[in-house]
Amino acid sequence: MTAIGKRILLSYGVRRFVHVVEEKVPFVRAWHQFAYTLHFEESSPNARMFRGVYRSVTEASAAAPASLPTGHDHANLALRHASDIGHTWPSDYPILFWLKGTLPESTSVFDLGGSVGNHYYTFQKYLTYPQDLRWVVCEVPAVAQAGRDLVQSTGVEGLHFTVHCEEADGSDIFLASGVLPFIDPPLAELLSRLRRRPKYLLINRAALSGDPAFVTLHNLGQAVCPYRILNRHEFIRSLEGIGYRLVDSWENPEFSCYIPFHADKTVRAYSGFYFRLSDTAATLTLKGSL
Q1: Which of 7, 146, 253, 280 could pair with 78 as two cysteines, CB 3.0-4.6 Å apart?
Q2: Could you tell me if 179 and 230 are in contact, meaning their C-beta atoms sit under 8 angstroms apart?
Q3: Which residue ranges make up each domain of the chain?
Q4: What is the pTM of this model?
Q5: Cα distances (angstroms) measured from residue 49 to each of 120, 150, 203, 263, 269
């Protein structure tokens, strides 16, 4: 199948047509559900599939297929992430724009869920990193180790890996791209635990909707894991509640979440944000660190 043909079949219009047919012909819906379940529970080189709507991570985890491992902490996933280094998505450009303005006055970036350092390697094609910049990627153990191995083989300086979110304490820039659906606790709670909160928040590929928050299952290709869809208003309000001010927001139209048989839960475009810590909040966190 050509790339154009695949895009047409996966388009919102075709999905809506299939949904209408399934509503009118129950047998078609039952067969589609059976076939999709079999496909979802299989491993593949690369997949982005979703299944089910659940009230909690616990409920979603209980519904995960036993045929696939769970979570991201697997060496084969780390290797797959490494193959994406160098690829720039359209939604990366707002991040590059704001990094260009904030990096010159920064000495540290904390990259939550930054894979094997994909952002660090890819963005250096467009940005000049300060000589003393410390870029720390926080990942699960298997991916963090793969990142360290890559650093050793490439000889890059300034790129480091950790498995502890607490190391974001005192960072200038906090980057979170595509990781929000996977983290627990929520981002605002994670940041509120830090003595010195990052001055800048750059958030990208966030799966947000206008509906109440819920959880689905995400097939990553070689593993499956719970995937949170957050409420947009609650997400923004939670960060404003700990002292951040929303400066900019944008859409990521190349990323979406379609859950078969739950068309009303579709997220047609993910979201990106740039938040800045207010001067008052920055003063309070600085006093708290003394």
Answers
A1: 146
A2: no
A3: 41-289
A4: 0.86
A5: 27, 29, 23, 14, 16
What's the CA gap between 20 and 226, in Å, rounded? 28
Q: Angle at CA 38, nearest 5°, toward 209 and 27?
A: 80
Q: How far apart are CA 164 and CA 58, in angstroms?
A: 23
User: Is residue 50 within 8 Å of residue 256, measured between CB atoms?
Assistant: no
Please give the radius of gyration of the chain, using alpha carbons only, rounded to the nearest integer. 20
Note the Cα 281 to chain centre separation in Å.
Answer: 26
Give the single-character DSSP code of 70. Answer: B
Mean pLDDT of 55-69: 93
Could you give the C-alpha distances from 180 to 9, 160, 205, 207, 250, in angstroms and in order? Answer: 28, 21, 8, 8, 16
DSSP codes, 181-242: GG-SS-HHHHHHT-SS--SEEEEEEE-EESSPPEEEEEE-SS-EEEEEEEEHHHHHHHHHTT
Phi/psi-derived region of residue 13, left when phi > 0, alpha when psi is between -120 and 50, beta in every other case: alpha
241-254 pLDDT, tens per residue? 999 999 999 999 99
Of 4-8, 196-200, 265-269, 271-275, the one with minimum mean pLDDT is 4-8
3-state secondary structure of 53: strand
Considering the domain 41-289 in this protein, what is its CATH number? Answer: 3.40.50.150
Whether the bond into 185 is cis, omega within 30 of 0:
yes
Which of 279 and 140 is assigned the larger pLDDT? 140
Looking at the chain, how many residues does it have? 290
* AA letter at 82: A
> Is there a contact between 254 and 87 (Cβ–Cβ < 8 Å)?
no
- Paired with 271 in beta bridges are 206, 251
Tokens of 194: 């830090």
